Amino acid sequence: MAPIRNPKDFWAGLLFVGLGIFALILGSNYTLGTAARMGPGYFPRILGLLLILLGAIIVLNGLRGRGEGIPPYKWRPLLVVLGSVVLFGFIVAKLGVAISTVILIVTASAASHEFRPREAVMSGVLLAALAVGVFIVGLSLQLPIWPDFS
Amino acid sequence: MDLINHLMLGFGVALHPINLLYALIGSLIGTLIGVLPGIGPVATIAMLLPTTYALPPVSALIMLAGIYYGAQYGGSTTSILLNMPGETSSVVTCLDGHQMALQGHAGAALATAALGSFFAGTVATILVAAVATPLSEIALKFGPAEYFSLMVLGLIGAVVLASGSLVKAIAMIVTGLLLGIVGTDVNSGTQRFAFGVPELSDGIGVVGVAMGLFGFAEIITNLESTEKRVLVTNKVKGLWITMEQFKAAWPAVLRGTGLGSVLGILPGGGAMLSSFASYAVEKKLAKDPSRFGKGAIEGVAGPESANNAGAQTSFIPLLTLGIPENAVMAMMVGAMTIHNIQPGPQVMTSNPGLFWGLIASMWVGNFMLVVLNLPMIGMWVKLLTVPYRILYPAILLFCAIGVYTINNTNIDIVITAFFGFVGVLFMKLGCEPAPLLLGFVLGPMMEENLRRAMLLSRGDPTTFLTRPISAAMLAAAVLLILVIALPNIRKKREEAFAEEAAI
């Protein structure tokens, strides 16, 4: 096998081929119909095939051309940022905007290499007040401010 | 005169106190995110979309449009004062704008940028109003085959003019189209790619996709770099331009406005492309090109006028044809859909107040930006002294609340987080997210028009080639791809983008 000269293209291409195959397999459950009366499976099949074709071209480019490597993943920002936001989604209805905001700000701040816990708590409290003011008082969104224990 | 009547109607709507207020809010938020690096207009519009549910549609659209052109003003401010482009569209402004600031002409550079932008905004508003009626009339005659081909051309055009690998960008479009068909098929009621998740039966929300790909992914990649940002704040004094500077600047403003207006209309055009093109033109036309990069006022006047003109004329294909040509316009489609307005040529006749009101509000917003922003520059610059470690959690908070309140369920937040992950992955693999968003928004419309066209032709695919307008548009799309694929031009294009990257 030829060496991978352009890893970015190579892996991107494989990803697209994979997505295309995935779409074809899932889409095979949907009625194809005819060209004149397309069923729900017609357009997804076209797209799936097209994606496989394009992905294959990109893979070939990845083998031929020259290119930089893929920059390494840094897991801390990725997991902490996404995790803190998802956590917020799960607690906001129960704990209310005020407490959830402080939790979101403090956890999200930990994603940075310059994390300063005390500063994060202070910023969280200020933003909680701002969020309640803007979203609940100002825009009257239907969210609880405080935890509901009843 | 129809044009004048239409503009009168528009200004009647735009000058309504409520709409004035929303134009102001939109322009100010736009300036704010233009100043702040790390958050762009796409993510901001996504963030604010849910909060516009309660507003009348015209106020919502006026505010969201204000964010886009407000960002152009804000971006230039930081480029000039801090050599730090808040938006990609003002990257070139750094070159000469910051040099002018270092030489003590910061005030003149800022005033040139603001007045040039305002002039460009005025011309572009009139242009949008003037071409809207004839273009919509043409578009109303389009059948499904023409519409399908137009979308193909629009999508291809959008990636040809964008930077990066062409095949990858097309693959991103197709991925976007696939994502766009998730949900219930309107014709058969079949659930497609919904994995049994009831919330997915209405499709994936545009807010989650855009915020994940543009907002979260951007924040995560910023956090990965450990470089510290250095802030240089210098005082701005005297916002006035000398006669000599004015004489040098006005032809550049005119050229920038013209260039930006044309490039804005083209698919894939808009603010960024316009500013780069204008800088190149000014440098070519200058008697002494060596002055560029050392504080040439034309290097500020041209691109800043061009990016504003381009930002505004990119509304033309959206408003008249219903086809978004860049990621921001894709968000505007999302905004219109949320308010039950199907974008397309019929908006002008079915919703004249909204249509002309939105156009007139662009001029009103530009006017507010000139009047309000010049005195507020000091405040914007102060904002930049807030460190990123405090700023990004706040951005995340507004994103999280915005997404949560779409349906008051956490599923939307999970979807957004998923697209944040996907966005980081795509960035690592060198795939631009903008084509995906365009494909995503156009997906359902494209399938619908394909089906209708094929039904009308009784399953004969040559209908796309035998109908002249459709054939011409497809030919243009093929031509665009061929032109880019030709080795010579390909090399030139790569050089041009390499130059951009070096900037």
Explain this structure to me?
Chain A has 150 residues and is mainly α. Chain A folds into 2 domains: 7-64; 75-138, no CATH class. Chain A has helices spanning 7-27, 42-64, 75-109, 117-138. The model of chain A has no long low-confidence stretch (mean pLDDT 87). Chain B has one domain. The model of chain B has no long low-confidence stretch (mean pLDDT 84). Chains A and B meet through helix 1, helix 2, helix 3 and helix 4 of A and helix 8, helix 9, helix 17, helix 18 and helix 19 of B.
Terminus-to-terminus distance of chain B? 46 Å
The gross shape of chain A turns out to be flat
- Biggest beta sheet summary of chain A: none
Beta-strand proportion of chain B: under 5%
Largest sheet of chain B: 2 strands, antiparallel
Could you tell me the number of beta strands of chain A? Answer: 0
Helix fraction of chain B, binned, reads over 70%
Describe the strand arrangement of the main beta sheet of chain B, using strand numbers.
1-2
Report the uncertain regions of chain A.
Answer: none
What is the arithmetic mean of pLDDT of chain A? 87
How many β-strand stretches of chain B? 2
Cα(first) to Cα(last) distance of chain A is 66 Å
Largest interface: A-B, 72 and 65 residues
The coarse overall form of chain B would be: globular
| Helix/strand order of chain B, N-terminal first | HHHHHHHHEEHHHHHHHHHHHHHH
Secondary-structure element order of chain A, N to C: HHHH
Low-pLDDT segments, ≥5 res of chain B: none
* Count of individual domains of chain B: 1
Mind telling me the C-alpha Rg of chain B? 22 Å
As a percent range, the share of strand residues of chain A is: under 5%
Task: Please compute the radius of gyration of chain A using only Cα atoms.
Answer: 24 Å
